Structure formats: C-alpha cells, structure tokens
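Kindly review both lines to help learners:
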Amino acid sequence: MKAAFSNSWKRSTQPRKQRKYRHNAPLHIRQKFIRAHLSKELREKHNKRSSSVRVGDKTKIVRGQFKGKTGKVERVDLKKSKIYISGIESVKKEGAKVQIPINPTNVIITELNLDDKKRKESMTKSAAESKSRTGPKKEREK
C-alpha cells in the first residue's frame, strides 16, 4: 500500500503529486501553507516579506470580490487552508450571515498580533539580524 504522506512529493515537478502533497499533508506542515505577505511598513520594520497568519492579525484583502476591505482574522482553518476575516460575510437567502473563507495568499497583513512571546521574539530577532548584516557591509562599500 502506498504511503498516506511523503516528503518526496514536494520535490516532484508533476502537478498531481504537488496537489497530493498539499492535500495529504499533516497539520504541522499545513501550518506553513497559511502564510501571507506583510505590508510595506511591516516589511521594512521586521525585514521579512511574509509571515504566518494568526488569529488577531489585521489584514487587507487584495484579490477577489472583497478587494480593499480590511478586518481582523477571526479563525484559521488548517484543514481547508483558509482564513476567516471579520466583516467579510455574505447573506443567505433566509437572512442568515455566513463568513466567507479566504485564501491567505490573497491578503496582506497590515498589523501583527504580537501577544505571543515567541512570535514577537522571532520578529524582533529577524529585524536585529538584518541590521547587523547591513551595518558592516555598508562600511565596506565606502
């Protein structure tokens, strides 16, 4: 019987195996799929292009029906690789409101939720490393 999941599928150029990798990935690997670009201000401040999306992050939608709208992330669904943002909902025929799932690649993180110590430490650490790397390099150029 074939394995339910294998890291070797990731290296394949075949689309069917890439889809299989994403579909059968365990949750700790699916967490890596839930990443979004940072806004220009955050990118310069933390010296990172992207970060994983967490509950409490403020995001701006840049693609799709709700383009331009902003809101806080209320829920992250690892199984479906979708996020749910407050204020992004549709009205059903009977009048009930339902939140719409959004792909995290279609949003930009405008404000990070830094309540978690590890996340705050990793963001400040990356910014500090970049400053230490760029400092001596600029001196050499002169």
Remarks:
- The chain has two domains: 1-33, 35-132.
